[in-house]
Amino acid sequence: MTQPAFDEPGAEVTTTSHARDGMIRPERFPNIWCPGCGIGIVLAAYIGAMEKSNIPSQKHVCISGIGCTGRAAGYLNLDTFHTTHGRAIPFATGMAVANPELEITVIAGDGDLSTIGGNHLIHAARRNVDINVIMVNNFNYGMTGGQHGATTPLGAKTHTSPYGNAEAPFNLPYLIAAAGASFVSRWTALHIRQMSAAVKRMMEIEGFTFMEVISPCPPTFGEYNAYPEALDMMQYFRSKAVVDHNADLRTVSVSARPEDDLVVGNFVDSRRESYQELLDSLRRRALERRK
Amino acid sequence: MGNLACVEAALMAGCRFYAGYPITPSSEIFERSCSRFPQAGGQAIEMEDEIASMAALIGASYAGAKAMTATSGPGFSLMLENISLAYIMEAPCVVVNVQRSGPCTGIPTLVGQGDMLQAKWGSGDIEAIAYCPSSVQEFFDLTIQAFNTAEKFRTPVIVLADQVTGMMWEKLSIPPEEEIEIVNRQLMDPLRKEAPFDFSKDFIPMPIVGGGCRVNTDGLTHDVRGYPSTDHSVSQMMNSHLTGKIRNHAREIWKWEEYLTDDAEVLVVAYGSTARSALAAVKEARSRGIRAALLRLITPWPFPDEVVRKLCDRVDAAVVPEVNFGQMVHMVRANTSCSVVGVNWAPGTPIAPQTILDALEVVSSR
Amino acid sequence: MLELKGQAEYAPQTQKAQNPRTFVRTPVNLDRFRAPRGRVYVVPERCKECNYCWTFCPQEVLELGAETNLNGYRHPRVKPGKENDCVNCGMCTWICPEFAIYTVEVKGS
To answer: Which residues, in sequence order, are CB contacts of C75 under 8 Å at separation 6+?
Structure first.
């Protein structure tokens, strides 16, 4: 902090640095995201969780994919990696296996992780690789201008579905829980404290942890689907988000229509042997046999 | 077996991470790695596809491990994007491509040499380093060399073997550990004050994760701080560094073997298992009075253009036999003014020495 | 645990949190209880006028300002007269996607 703290209430103080600048790369701000984009909020939640975790920040690694959310890692003051489209998770798997001491978090978008990267996502969940995956879901490929992807709701309009999307989206919490993840949750960009608490829980759990964060995307998805302003979608979250940690995952698909509920919560929090633990036992068995 | 020798060489070079996917005729490398790597204190894992394998290699490389994978033609095509990621991220790793008959699924169990140009030009505008073994012993030696080169230059190195060298059984002589030279990457100092990447230098220390370097390593074109940039000057600087570090040291990377080139009239330029047939053809040609010679390319990439030019310009003709429909012949032709004839052979069997000999007789009679 | 399933319109908090020092019934420890107070810090050059901070401030301390930054966005300011009402809840700090606003607790009476 460069300016003296004011110890009286009063008008706002204008300054050039932020209390959290230690954890970000401040020379790169303002960031490239649109006004109202939820990705910056996810970064703040992640930083908050990192600060509360007992893990030193130099052991944290952030790996991201391609797209708007893919730029997230570049703004954090950590060892960060900006990888190829859809391949952040196998990159993270290789790193996690080679050095199990690291706390690896993958931050990527819905198109990156669940469309092109869908195969890697389900396999990492199946293996229960001990990494944290935060998927920012804005229902489209935002960076490239707003094309539909595996999470675009049925009937939604995007630049590649001008007559309405003819595909039903993935119900991601259901899919990832079925694939075997240890922790599955969904929050929105508005549920900041629950989101940060969930990320902290994800860091504690030894296993594949997944969080879907629903975010506004005003110029693309929002513009064409009843949420032209970022605030419109945040107000939708405020009025229609229903917190239900025990929801039946078969029913939590997102329609993103203003009249429909949006179920959020920490749906799955279980424990089974992680990939790193299993590989460790494997190595012990191999060394036994060698004797 | 060549494939098995490769694994032993990797272990001796210090490789402790393998991520792969089974594909004929490289699966023996994967299988032996799965039994030997954990015994050596490493890990060998199977990924869901070759794309994931290559991504995992880069992740493991940045975690500090020497990493490798093995594949064949179709898998290699899948790995291409991430090979360019390893190139731009400057991640040392080794990719073994035991080439098979192609194109596409081709004949999985038989020889081909169809990925030669792809190794350099398949993943965009990169400088490639590749080694081509012609025997089991060479497969062993070149795998160790590949790791050393990868570590020194911080770049992905490809071992372009083929089904013949991969699956043949020959006597292998493993030198004692003390006699094997091992090169390790330079590590970045986390307490450095200046920007992480000095693009004016050829060799930049590597920021291994977990040590506090806090560097952004990017697949996007990036500046000296590691941040993405669309500035042309940044692209110029970064690409000059990436290509320069290999081009400026190409002469120390080049490896080749010459046989009777001093008084040759016609030169055979061959590589891989084809070079074995070529050697037999050259010897037979000599006994018939044709002054033939052999130039065996051990590093097809970076292409040893000076060597090829020097040797080809003094002969009347060059013959380039390949188990494909013309790949390295184009590189030879581009680098010499002598007449270059390609001997193309459909993949599925090695070229018989007689075929090369026939070409030599035709060429020398002109 | 508070059951929020199937609620009607999410009621804005502002009606309840007008002034934390006003209660329906007076708590017995009121003289020892002090709501925290905060001071708002704004980084004007980072603001993108997304309007989240002043929309979601539970104390309605902030409003859209008039001064624009170099990119043409107007950053928030404390409403005149509401300088004492910030309770350092951190909502603006957490909700700002740009790391452009935060509060610091003000000690003392």
So the answer is: A14, C42, C44, C47, C49, C65, C67, C69, C100, C101
